């Protein structure tokens, strides 16, 4: 059934406006060529969109050309103004932009932890109003907010979440009250970061991928067949609550401590760096941890060797991933990743040695442990067989009775590698990045096993700071842990992805409203 004239006009108008948004100003001839429409049809839609105040003449094509055919048409950027907010526990970042997304003003407001709900909301509202004034806008058409926590899919409101400030839940209503006529929408911060990475960042060529957010906290966003998936209750991607090996407790319904957050959140990353002797940043938030990772990557690159260089090749019995309880393990000597003269440690059943950047497998009770490496060759030549004794307390030290460290527990000496037997600074950076990749791979492997996304983007400040070095280390581990081929990419936008995603969402919704029926779009006075 052919489309009605009004439907055909609406389709043509949206097509032309979309081209102007994506490609910038175009002449009527270029619109004709790109849309495939006839010259009279293009002339009609240009007149119609101009009368609605949605496009305007912004220049001419070619300095020597004049006349109607040379006119460049562009979206009327001042037709509407937008605001985007990135709401964090410690404060809010704000920007104001025009209808094409050009940023006109920015602001940030810190919110101390002991600030009450009323004063906190007032500060944010004042910051938004100040940015609107500096942008020269009279009013806002649409406001996009990115915030941590669960968004109720039925109401679009931020749900009550333990651990988040109460003012987060009051902000949307306060902005709606202070900005009459504006559309205020709230979205989970990680979902917005995924949108930004797909539209403008590392996932531009992917319709299916998972963004693993690594910042102050952890999270994940799932995009399948080009559609963001939120789940039945809006909680898709709450990976911080994922139970993982290597933590002393299990997460609860109200606290993600003991989950993946405990392995890969900013505080855990800073603690891991301290265990490896790296300088401790002034803050343990996302930017602080990202600075630690970035400096480690830079030192490794400056040393001319990628993280993990010189490590032994991984054979069938040596993985960088988790192992089932009771599987055999071969202890290693100094040349294979343990300090000279120090007895290697076993791990609790199914538990990773997180601080050392490697996983070790556990022999069953009474099973011989085949020693390898420089220290072990002497014993092997002498015909010595080392056995592990069983006890009610779990696996014991194969050679010395030393208990494994808990997550976050510092070791008295970092292990040396074959390429770095003396434990130099560059070697400490390598071991830190390898240990961090071990941790990240646990969460990534869980997502890959369930969703098979084909691509994992390491987003947030930490993922961006790790760059291709950290992404490559995680990819190596995923290849050993999963039969599913998965590309691992570093996020391109870092911590700014949330604010950018909030702006893209606000722009899309404003344009959807204004472009839905140009004939009825009022021209602002």
UniProtKB/TrEMBL annotation:
<dbReference type="InterPro" id="IPR000835">
    <property type="entry name" value="HTH_MarR-typ"/>
</dbReference>
<dbReference type="Pfam" id="PF12802">
    <property type="entry name" value="MarR_2"/>
</dbReference>
<feature type="region of interest" description="Disordered">
    <location>
        <begin position="304"/>
        <end position="324"/>
    </location>
</feature>
<dbReference type="InterPro" id="IPR036390">
    <property type="entry name" value="WH_DNA-bd_sf"/>
</dbReference>
<feature type="region of interest" description="Disordered">
    <location>
        <begin position="366"/>
        <end position="425"/>
    </location>
</feature>
<protein>
    <recommendedName>
        <fullName>HTH marR-type domain-containing protein</fullName>
    </recommendedName>
</protein>
<dbReference type="InterPro" id="IPR011991">
    <property type="entry name" value="ArsR-like_HTH"/>
</dbReference>
<feature type="domain" description="HTH marR-type">
    <location>
        <begin position="16"/>
        <end position="66"/>
    </location>
</feature>
<feature type="compositionally biased region" description="Low complexity">
    <location>
        <begin position="416"/>
        <end position="425"/>
    </location>
</feature>
<dbReference type="Pfam" id="PF00480">
    <property type="entry name" value="ROK"/>
</dbReference>
<dbReference type="InterPro" id="IPR000600">
    <property type="entry name" value="ROK"/>
</dbReference>
<dbReference type="InterPro" id="IPR036388">
    <property type="entry name" value="WH-like_DNA-bd_sf"/>
</dbReference>
<dbReference type="InterPro" id="IPR043129">
    <property type="entry name" value="ATPase_NBD"/>
</dbReference>
<comment type="similarity">
    <text>Belongs to the ROK (NagC/XylR) family.</text>
</comment>
<feature type="region of interest" description="Disordered">
    <location>
        <begin position="329"/>
        <end position="348"/>
    </location>
</feature>
